[in-house]
Write a structure and sequence with these properties.
The chain has helices at 9-32, 35-53, 70-77, 93-106, 145-155, 175-197, 200-212, 217-225; strands at 60-64, 85-90, 112-117, 130-136, 156-167, 229-236, 241-247. The protein has 248 residues and is an alpha/beta fold. It has a single domain (6-247), classed as Vaccinia Virus protein VP39 (Rossmann fold). A seven-stranded mixed sheet has the order 3-2-1-4-5-7-6, sandwiched between helices. Helix 1 (9-32) crosses helix 6 (175-197), helix 2 (35-53) crosses helix 3 and helix 6 (175-197) runs antiparallel to helix 7. It binds S-adenosylmethionine (SAM).
Length: 248
């Protein structure tokens, strides 16, 4: 996808995800061979561990770039939350519409999710009002990555933790693995996603953004620069998918 100017990126990305919304979950499952479910689950287990350590049974969690709500739902179902609340924010209305349907169907007993349209770079919340924030496969879409991280830092309470799950090409060091993954992206992922979504440009943009994301040490450095401490990195799938953690 050709981005005409930075100002247009949010509008272009939002339109792209609105158009992809009806096929998004199906394509995720096919292209990742269902591993995306396991990756999000790993994030939730790290969140649960943090909640246990901090004795936080009731917690407000902000799920940024929530999309169709898979992570928000998983968090709301977990005991990290008990009777807490998840606030799911995303600029793409159609992605959130699917998340809302899934939430209704889930009939959660206690924890609740509220959905809100919005931009990570300008969060419509007071400072310090969330115990944790999560972003799954969202940060590489932000136009101003540092600005968004600063905003997330602002809305976290002291001791609050940010969990970022993201493709991290820069963490894949083995040459053979890099070749195999490149082959998979170009020869399998792009044709399959084009076939199912009818949109070639969206998935070539998504694949390119994986190669361009400042992964590993570079991302941890950015978190540190924006005030986060106790930085951690949990690599999965030869490093291709990584969970980054930072504490305010
Ligand atoms: C690849 S999807 C990930 C959705 C979901 N978190 C998941 O795990 O499936 C990326 C999401 O980022 C959202 N997004 C893009 N730019 C954003 C921004 N500036 N602020 C918040 N969300 C944004 C998109 O609308 C899209 O729903």
């Amino acid at each position: 996808m050709h981005m005409k100017s930075k100002e247009h990126k949010l509008a272009t990305i939002t339109k792209m995800f609105n158009d992809l919304a009806p096929k998004y979950d199906l394509l995720n499952r096919i292209l990742s061979m269902r591993m995306d479910v396991w990756w999000r689950r790993r994030l939730v287990s790290l969140l649960e561990k943090q909640a246990r350590e901090q004795g936080q049974g009731v917690m407000r969690v902000l799920d940024v770039a929530a999309g169709t709500g898979d992570l928000s739902l998983m968090i709301a179902r977990s005991h990290a939350l008990e009777s807490g609340e998840v606030v799911a924010i995303d600029p793409a209305k159609e992605m959130l519409a699917i998340a809302k349907i899934k939430y209704k169907r889930a009939k959660l007993p206690t924890a609740k999710i509220t959905f809100q349209e919005g931009n990570a770079e300008l969060l419509p919340f007071e400072a310090g009002c969330f115990g944790a924030a999560t972003v799954a496969f969202g940060v590489r879409n932000f136009e101003d990555l540092e600005g968004a991280i600063t905003e997330i830092y602002r809305v976290l309470s002291k001791g609050g933790t940010l969990f970022v799950l993201e493709f991290s090409w820069g963490n894949v060091h083995n040459l053979l693995t890099r070749k195999l993954l490149r082959f998979y992206f170009q020869r399998v992922m792009l044709p399959v996603s084009e076939f199912f979504s009818g949109q070639k440009s969206s998935y070539s943009y998504l694949a390119n953004s994986i190669f361009e994301f400042p992964a590993g040490e570079r991302f941890l450095h950015l978190l540190g620069k924006r005030g986060f401490g106790k930085l951690e990195e949990h690599k999965m799938c030869w490093g291709l998918v990584t969970i980054y953690i930072g504490v305010k």
